[in-house]
Design goal:
It is a single chain. This protein is α/β, with parallel strands linked by helices and 401 residues long. The chain contains 13 helices and 18 strands. The strands form 4 sheets. The chain has a 7-stranded mixed β-sheet. It starts with a strand and ends in a 27-residue tail after the last helix.
Length: 401
């Protein structure tokens, strides 16, 4: 019997994970990407234990864990350098069953794509969903410059401004501006070592985290009108963060102006009615774009791909499988979106009294133990995928949270 065909529109981390998981479960997979290469837009990504367990299912979780660079202490600071909350890598790993791993997005994309047949990924191939199909009836249809493709399953992984989402749910509200903008950069490590940290100021934050290859991934956020831009983003960062504690000024100084990425933050603060229609399904930012304040956008997209493949294995009822996918993923991701929004509101505080209260509460929680700081990720980082994994010695047979 011929393998059923799945088409994935978009080759981001979620789309590639879904493609690999679907292929392993028995689908013939084609990934369509409008860009000319798989080189990802972005800098670093934080892979929490939940994302790593999801990657266990496709056999690369241990590879990712081997890239963990955070050791020892870290935590949250004020711009003066004062510690607001401390934790350490060991406490985080013990609480959630694994380390937090910072990797460059290109590393993760390369590791996933290398496990797909070269013929499975078509770059320079924009795609448009022309018919979502009907379960038990007509196949889904995707249009490309080289003709149409019919498929038993189409996966919309085309990002926050998803055309697939609009085609499925034209009346659903789209993403809305979260009220702040972000910057990301990867630079060589400064001469003086430093503990990893996220520093919260008035309506702004800065994070400095090590990568396994010795470089530093830095990110920043600040409240700003949508669409605002500086002629010189490096000079703009120096104006905003140049008087913050070490190593923030050195990190900015080391950044090449052309390599500073800036993006306004949009998120889906109103959930979709479902993540599927007909034979077509959404995942990642297409389904549930969220603020980056929990570092969970990529992790949730990876979870999506694994859970989708679990519920849609060939031989199972596709309609029931897609309904089960929505039932599993919609409430979980909506809860993560809400929690990320709550953290965003705390970060966005700019009045001196409100910031002082926020900082005091952070410090008080930290004095009661690192577990209180980590509690933000309870119910998120401790998620486990459904079913068995391909990783030797890894037990992930608990039900999905």
């Amino acid at each position: 019997m011929d393998m059923p065909r799945a088409v994935v529109i978009g080759s981001g981390i979620g789309g590639l994970t879904a493609a690999l998981a679907l292929q392993r479960s028995g689908w013939q997979v084609t990934v369509l990407e409008r860009a000319d290469s798989l080189e990802p837009v972005g800098a670093g990504i934080a892979l929490a234990p939940n994302g790593q367990r999801a990657l266990d299912v496709v056999g690369i979780g241990d590879e990712i864990r081997s890239l963990a660079a955070w050791q020892g202490e870290g935590g949250m600071r004020a711009p003066s350098g004062r510690w607001l909350a401390r934790t350490d890598a060991t406490a985080a790993a013990e609480r959630f069953g694994g380390p937090l791993v910072l990797v460059h997005r290109s590393v993760l994309v390369d590791r996933i794509a290398a496990r797909l047949p070269a013929s499975a990924v078509r770059t320079g191939c924009p795609a448009r969903l022309t018919d979502p199909g009907t379960v038990g009836g007509a196949p889904a249809v995707v249009s490309t410059p080289n003709g149409t493709i019919e498929a038993e399953l189409v996966v919309g992984a085309d990002g926050i401004h998803s055309a697939v989402r609009t085609a499925l749910f034209p009346d659903a509200p789209g993403p809305s501006y979260a009220g702040f903008t972000t910057w990301r950069v990867v630079v060589p490590a400064p001469e003086r070592p430093f503990p990893p940290h996220e520093t919260w100021g008035r309506g702004a934050l800065w994070g400095t985290q090590p990568l396994k290859d010795g470089r530093i991934y830095a990110y920043a956020a600040a409240t700003a009108p949508a669409g605002a831009r500086a002629d010189d983003e490096k000079a703009g960062l120096l104006r905003r963060f140049g008087d913050w504690h070490d190593p923030v000024p050195q990190i900015i100084a080391a950044a090449a102006p052309g390599e500073i990425l800036r993006n306004d933050v949009y998120r889906m603060d109103r959930p979709l009615p479902a993540f599927h229609r007909g034979r077509t399904v959404l995942l990642g930012d297409s389904a549930h774009a969220m603020a980056p304040t929990l570092g969970q956008g990529g992790n949730q997209a990876i979870e999506d791909g694994i859970v989708l493949a679990h519920h849609t294995a060939p031989g199972r009822d596709l309609g029931a499988g897609l309904a089960a996918y929505t039932a599993d993923r919609l409430p979980r991701t909506a809860a993560v979106v809400r929690k990320a929004d709550r953290v965003s509101r705390l970060m966005s505080l700019s009045g001196a009294p409100a910031v002082a209260v926020r900082d005091f509460l952070m410090s008080a929680a930290s004095r009661l133990g690192p577990g209180l700081v980590l509690r933000t990720f309870d119910g998120i980082a401790d998620w486990r995928p459904p079913g068995d994994t391909y990783a030797a010695g890894t037990t992930t047979d608990a039900p999905a949270a």
